């Protein structure tokens, strides 16, 4: 796991990328997209700052809190937004000079409502015609079939569930079988079942040889399907690597852990000397029935060691554990840590 380090063209290819059948996805020699020192600002707002990265086949997750610059970066990758500084190459070409490369990119944007009055079939067919496919009807049927939507169902998008709308957006993005697929928050607002279906679809597209860049503002949401993870905060890529590497990096940060127990004093004494523990605070149990149970709040620089040692120390202290909870495991804390380290 590297932090703040650019992914360069020497970065290893995505580990689980498996090329699909010949002709499944447009052939790609070399990196599908390359950004070199790319910044984009709007007036005084710097949306993306000095980003260098290379995308290759497989799924790359782009994580970051709201306003981190993800959507702007996705639009820069697609060539839809012009960089204020730096260069973008799509399939080896400058998209501004070679607009034909846009035909080899599929984008499922975050914005909704544009085609609300259309059925998924009409929506996808319009996209197929716009890129000049020879058989837009057949391609639409295939794309809808791929995402599990019935081409014969005439109900407009505004009457569809969040999951169906997301799948229609993905069908519109893959109808011309582009090598590069960019999906902006495709699982936002979906229930767990729909989320699983969309994630499985994204994983399958990556495994077929598409280069998929997919964003989310929820840490951990894309872990299962990503070959690589980029973490953005305040316009910068602050961490890049594998999901596993990101988890290890986060494990190494200082953490505040609340341990609920019936014997806070004894447990605190047992934890004080543990490596990495820098402070232990007592929350004594309240008085009377229904009062809050006691707890120990531990500040540690070695969360994995605390996790490994806690049970044994509790046994030594004859303390029963009610809960173990990281108090600063919310997204904002994690991103703040990555930005300030
Ligand atoms: N067209 C624009 N004009 C002015 N400011 C913009 C424009 N597009 C983005 N920004 C600003 O750039 C910053 C990054 O926005 P961006 O939409 O890329 O972030 P994001 O990570 O995708 O956030 P979200 O998940 O909330 O969409 C924000 O401060 C935003 O207000």
UniProtKB/TrEMBL annotation:
Cross-referenced InterPro entries, in alphabetical order? AAA+_ATPase, ABC_transporter-like_ATP-bd, P-loop_NTPase
**Entry keyword annotation includes ATP-binding:** yes
- Which superkingdom heads the taxonomic lineage of this protein's source? Bacteria
Q: Domain named ABC transporter: which ranges?
A: 33-259
- For the region Disordered, give the residue spans: 1-30
Which CDD domains does this UniProt record tie to the protein? ABC_DR_subfamily_A
Q: Which UniProt keywords apply?
A: ATP-binding, Nucleotide-binding, Transport
Residue ranges with Low complexity bias: 1-22
Spell out the molecular function terms from Gene Ontology: ATP binding
The protein's matches in Pfam families, at most eight in alphabetical order, are given as: ABC_tran
Homology family: Belongs to the ABC transporter superfamily.
Question: What is the protein's name according to its record?
Answer: ABC transporter ATP-binding protein
To which species is this protein native? Aquipuribacter hungaricus
Its lineage reads:
Bacteria, Bacillati, Actinomycetota, Actinomycetes, Micrococcales
């Amino acid at each position: 796991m590297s932090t703040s380090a650019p992914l360069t063209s020497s970065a290893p290819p995505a580990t689980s990328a498996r090329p699909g059948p010949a002709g499944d996805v447009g052939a790609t020699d070399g990196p599908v997209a390359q950004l070199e020192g790319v910044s984009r600002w709007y007036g005084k707002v710097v949306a993306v700052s000095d980003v260098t990265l290379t995308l290759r086949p497989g799924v790359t997750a782009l994580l970051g809190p709201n306003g981190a610059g993800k959507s702007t970066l996705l639009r820069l990758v697609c060539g839809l937004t012009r960089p204020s500084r730096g260069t973008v190459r799509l399939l080896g070409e400058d998209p501004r000079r070679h607009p034909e490369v846009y035909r080899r990119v599929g984008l499922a944007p975050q914005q909704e409502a544009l085609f609300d009055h259309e059925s998924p079939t009409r929506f996808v067919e319009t996209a197929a015609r716009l890129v000049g496919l020879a058989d837009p009807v057949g391609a639409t049927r295939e794309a809808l079939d791929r995402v599990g939507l019935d081409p014969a169902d005439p109900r407009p998008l505004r009457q569809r569930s969040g999951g169906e709308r997301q799948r229609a957006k993905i069908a519109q993005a893959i109808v011309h079988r582009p090598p590069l697929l960019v999906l902006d928050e495709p699982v936002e607002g979906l229930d767990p079942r729909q989320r699983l279906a969309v994630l499985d679809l994204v994983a399958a597209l990556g495994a077929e040889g598409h280069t998929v860049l997919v964003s989310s503002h929820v840490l951990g949401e894309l872990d299962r399907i990503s070959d690589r993870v980029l973490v953005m905060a305040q316009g910068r890529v602050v961490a890049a690597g594998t999901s596993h590497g990101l988890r290890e990096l986060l494990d190494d940060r200082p953490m505040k852990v609340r341990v609920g127990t019936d014997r806070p004093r004894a447990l605190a004494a047992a934890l004080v000397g543990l490596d990495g523990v820098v402070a232990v605070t007592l929350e004594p149990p309240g008085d009377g029935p229904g009062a809050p149970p006691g707890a120990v709040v531990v500040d540690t620089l070695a969360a994995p060691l605390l996790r490994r040692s806690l049970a044994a120390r509790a046994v030594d202290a004859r303390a029963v554990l009610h809960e173990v909870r990281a108090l600063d495991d919310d997204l904002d804390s994690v991103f703040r840590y990555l930005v300030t380290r």
